[in-house]
Design brief:
By secondary structure, the chain is α+β, with helices and mostly antiparallel strands. Helices cover about 40% and strands about 20% of the residues. It has a four-stranded mixed beta sheet, with helices on one face.
Length: about 80
């Protein structure tokens, strides 16, 4: 199974860059029919993770994927599953 990984550690303080990268990776997964995207916002205070989840809940983004899974073993990781 193919997977795309996006680590947000390097751009954690740049909101516009975060949204740009999230859009890019979601669109790439749809275009290439990738079944899984792993997003790593990191643990930190949890604000970046909340921001990522808010982005993923936008109606125009939400319609592109099947479901979101928050990793129960690693608080700083989110999986976005696609159904093709």
């Amino acid at each position: 199974m193919a997977k795309i990984k996006l680590d947000l550690h390097d751009i954690y303080s740049n909101g516009r860059a975060i949204e740009t990268e999230l859009s890019r990776v979601i669109n790439e997964a749809v275009r290439k029919r990738i079944c899984l995207v792993e997003i790593i916002p990191g643990k930190g205070s949890g604000q970046l993770k909340k921001s990522v989840l808010r982005f993923l809940e936008q109606p125009d983004i939400k319609r592109l994927y099947h479901r979101i899974e928050k990793d129960d073993k690693n608080f700083g990781r989110i999986f976005v599953h696609f159904r093709f």
